[in-house]
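Exercise 7. Predict the joint structure of the components listed below.
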Amino acid sequence: MEIQTIKSQGKTNKATERISGSEAVVRCLIAEGVDILYGYPGGAIMPVYDELYKYHGKIHHVLTRHEQGATHAAQGYARISGKVGVAIATSGPGATNLITGIADAQIDSTPMVCITGQVASHLLGSDAFQETDIVGISTPVTKWNCQITKAADIPKVMAKAFYIARSGRPGPVLVDITKDAQFEEFDFLYEKCTHVRSYNPLPTTDIIKVKEAANLINAAKKPLIVWGQGVILGKAEEELKAVLEKAGIPAAWTILGASAIPTSHPLNVGMVGMHGNYAPNVLTNECDLLIAIGMRFDDRVTGSLSTYAKQAKVIHFEIDPAEIDKNVKSDVAVLGDAKKSLEELLPFLEEKSHTDWHQKFKDLYQIEYDKVIKNDLYPTKEGLTMAEVLKEINSQSEGKAAIVTDVGQHQMVACRYADFNVSKSNITSGGLGTMGFGLPAAIGAKMAAPDREVISISGDGGYQMTIQELGTIFQQKAAVKVVVLNNDFLGMVRQWQQLFFDKRYASTEMVNPNFVAIAEGYYIKARKVTKREELAEAVAEMMQSKEAYFLEVCVEKEDNVFPMIPTGASVSDIRLE
Amino acid sequence: MSTEDKQLYTVSIYTENNIGLLNRISAIFQRRHINIESLNTSPSEIEGVSKFTIVVNMDEVNIKKILGQIEKQVEVIKAYYHNLDQIIYQISGLFKIKSELLFEEPHIQNIIKESNARIVTVNKAFFILEKSGKKEEIVEMYNQLSKFGIMQYTRSGLIAVTKEEMKISSLLESYNN
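Solution:
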């Protein structure tokens, strides 16, 4: 295939070096600023591993215990550093084990490059040992993918892979390299890719649209901002803050947008969506202007589309043209990078306070507090709630920890109750809802931000899907704090069974092992808490630990997460009980 | 989406010449349960740029969304959609018929004459008829000939050019700058 980059190699006068394809892979990674990658070796990728051995010291390979763990670790790394995460695996099962993480990165717009080994090119299509069509398999879940059969293609494909993964709306890219291409020698020269002619990652912000948006905002009596991860990916936290402060607009977030504006900010009115806060969900259907910024109107955010914000005009700030009018029709669409668009918007905005409108949010918050929050944070019953664990973590971390969650009840509780005082503090699997994401993602997050407290919070179900990565924590001496909120159930599914399937608890009860013993088996300090009196002290011990620490908290078995928008219901029909 | 709003559209996609792109594009339709009525790939008027012509039966709201998903693919340069009034198009049909019928059934000769079909080749055993035009014309010819027995029949995908100008060259120029 032809690789279209603006600079064609070979025509320059720069000096080349004769090296193997496998060495070229490692040199490309180093040239792209990669100093850490996650993976698992095997036959078809061995030449590259041999080079990683030689380049030890310049680039650190983290041996995970499963290839899926490698992708989630790379995702955690990417989400907290803003850099491209890298995962590497062999052909066949090594490659297919990456797919869940790749699909997760695709739907959550995470920049990631995955490198897979492939059988030698003369064996392609022969059903050779550990041969699988990983390019075909990964096509629907990658932003771009490519198979290399000639060493000479490695530098330009790798350069293109990194450029595509990180530019525009980021996403995962897979590069599959046959074993003969890894062995083959060629004249190496690396040039970064800055342009692909058929690819326009950053649409230009149209100032006319920005002015139209400003006019709608200035005329609105009841505006509501809903921001998503586009604000974090676009590094537009300050610009967003400036916009909402000047125009006095209440602002709510999707789970991937969490932490872009601090929890304590007076204009932060909480989370939207299925288990989001009461006020922003209800008032979505009362606002006269909905301003969506870097979010994609996921069905878990909108509930029933036919009743979603029908009374409101809609402004959509978005980098990906395919998202415009995909789910919700916008009156004004401002394409482009969130930072630039919001920067251009700010001077056109009038200063407003919208006091009466804010009061509505406060009133509805009070209702939610009385019916839900108070009982979650200050329970009067004997069993521990998940929320009180978060409350304890908040107070001891001052809301500065990076919270890495898995998927399920604990995830919703963490998003609802964690204090996020620093951006990029909520690392979670949003779109794909991948159980098992949390623990390996926390390893990557900790390695990307060693100075930050990284707390992995999982349920007893998801934790056991990638529990083997405790081995990686131990081997890498990664000081991840691992909290398991154990209710001996697949809690979210059980909640749905209780509410919608007449309490027929089909295969949701977990008979669990001795989690403390397992952690201790990996030489990780571990503790189990069953009583409220022990919680504060146990969290303190965990926070003070310089090394990895495992804390199991046994919580009430049959608690439910509320508020809740039942599937197919309107956001304003959100249930408090 | 109501069936009344559905009509045949051609989706014309200008792309880099890439080995995996067909898979990527067809997956976009497959995932949404959209049946592809016909698909043709060919070089385009620009060197090194390929063109897909895909025919689908859809409504306009959804075809716009599909176009967004197609254009999002890295190696897609630009995609357009048109209804059949906005394009000039042709479909080709090939018919293999026993040669003896040409002499035994004089009506076949009339069909060939009246339909402006072309005889591609003749030998002792069979002859090949080619007919280009709109789908209905080819179907009509099939219906007429099938009474006499057709040994083999195949119909090509739709190929089309638009009545309006396609500004791909200038678009590519702007991408390069």
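Discussion. The longest strand of chain A covers residues 112-118.
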